[in-house]
Amino acid sequence: MNRRVIRWITCILCAVLLLSVLSGCEGKTGKDKTVIKILYSNNFKQVEELVESTYDDIDLQIELSPYLSEQIRRLERGVGPDLIITAQPDSNLVRKYLLDISDTKASAAYDGTIMNAAKLDGKTYMIPLPGVYSGYVVNETLFEQAGLSLPANNTELVTTLSELKEKGVGVGEDGVNFSIMSDYNTAVGLFYVGYMVPDFLGSVEGVKWLADFKNKEATFTGVWERSFNLSDALVDAGVMDPADIARQRNIVLCKNRLSDGTLAAAFGDSALYYECVAGNREAVKEGTAEAYTYRMLPFFSDEGNNPWFLFSPSALMGINNSISEEKRDACKRILELLSTPEGQEAFIEDLGGGTSCLTDYEQQQDSIPRGVEEFVESGYIYNVLFPSKIVEYFGGYVRNIMSGKCSVEEALQSIDRFYYEDTDESSYNFSVIGTVSHDLLLENFNVRRKETELGNFLADCVAEASGTSIAVVNGGGIRASFYQGVVYGGDIEVVCPYDNTIIVLEMNGQTLWDMVENGLSTCTDEFPSGRFLQVSGIHYTFDSSQPVGSRLVSVTMPDGTELDLNASYQVAVTDYMAGSKTYVEGNGDGYTMLNCYDDETPKGSVALIKETGLTYRDALAQYFEKHQDSAVDVNLEGRITDLAQEK
């Protein structure tokens, strides 16, 4: 081989070597990245962008889920997310599932008062997300239009709301003009905590009580009975509906109604305030509402004391202690990045507002709602620092009180037992009722968008329990997953938590078609509503890219025959869909064609054949009992097809 050829080959080899080195310097490929997962109700797009632009070896993935109980169930099954977010951490679960991060920079970056309250055994397990101020969000314009001054005490709050209602101002179809932002039990509990601040928790007596309570030397019983004074007065005045707080019907959509003027005031936080401002701006642009101004009011005193706002982190974040060392390292770096001003700004943008708990963070003034500023300056801001998940637990018992399931005294005694004896009376039911062969997953709102194995299984159970060949299940009634292996009694309670009962209706094919079409009316990519139907005994094809009302393409029987619009069919649905909770405030999910209960809405072209008295839970329990000898093994069968996803 001559020298020229040798030199040419040498040059090629050097070039190849140089390219390989350079490509190695460009960072890891997507396959080599460490995947870190979060399960939460917010889509942290800015946080994701910041993390992935800072660390080229991390792939941050956020799964949307408004059902916080699902996170704990995944942790218990060993398939939990890597970064854990919770609004009210349970001390036992923190010790069991979270990593001690005391050795990280993040642990020392925040306000000492908040961090000390969150510590367990002197160790740091979680960092606080930007927090929110809580009080009353009021539509100031409505009070002005009615010639009423904004209230300055609890008596005036009830009186002015009553006067507004008499004038028909700020009132919705349900006849109420005040509500509690009650998506989660913690929010409900905070309302009652707030009521107690001006005359108790903010006093020397209250400070001592809370310190004693943390040391298990004081109780809720005998002290917190008075926290129900205001809610009782609001209910008695007819301005607040206990049924929506109890979830016996749809909760009031506070943001929507404050934005369009059909709600005068609501207990909520600064995030709600800014959502109302933005929502009203959009409604004005669309011509569906007039322009309103909003203000936040504090919790008032009954005894002439200073009023207060609440402040608390919107949630806390920690690291799953069962993950690999590689993932732990990635998670620690993420927490440290998020504990910088840049990280907090990303959080605040994703959360739609908030106040950073970072030490010496320079907060933007326009992120503090009207009405809150003077209280921040005067120091009348109460940091909610209750131990464990007491506030969340309290909120859950408020719902039971509102629905008549227990008395105030019984609820407070249960809270004390929970805290003192670590006895959770609403704890998981670990009685074994069956098995499943593989995971039947609720993830990313799949039961509200498409056919799922979980939806097929539940719809089949409803069909079997009701004795009908056709059954439909609204996706919003499915709230958790079944995981491979043993199924416990507690599993069916969290998968199907609602008490709506199964009924059988006879309807013609046109009504059945209209029912399925209605289920497609809110099928969106972002936050689909729960009216989407999982089915048994029929197949349907739709096109989600088409306008609402024209999405359904075909409905067929399992054997392929077309739906006969003039034939009669017996279909299992829930009494909720048939108007048992009325159709006010979105109750019944728009299934007015099935109405056979609500006298305020025209009756549908249906006949009530049978009221089974069974809930979705009962249908599941009956199925597992009948089929004890075999594991549930369901699959996708092509029951539901979205043509838009096949384009």
Task: Explain what you see.
- Helix 8 crosses helix 17 (390-402) and helix 17 (390-402) packs antiparallel against helix 18.
- This protein is globular.
- The protein has 22 helices and 21 strands.
- The protein is an alpha/beta fold and 647 residues long.
- Helix content is 37%, strand content 17%.
In terms of DSSP E residues, the strand content is 15-25%
The beta-strand count equals 21
Report the average pLDDT across residues.
91
- Report Rg: 27 Å
Structural class comes to alpha/beta
Describe, in short, the structure shown:
Helix content is 37%, strand content 17%. With 647 residues, the chain is of the alpha/beta class. Helix 2 runs antiparallel to helix 15, helix 8 crosses helix 17 and helix 19 packs across helix 22.
List keywords for this structure.
647 residues, alpha/beta, six-stranded mixed β-sheet, five-stranded mixed β-sheet, 21 strands, globular, disordered N terminus
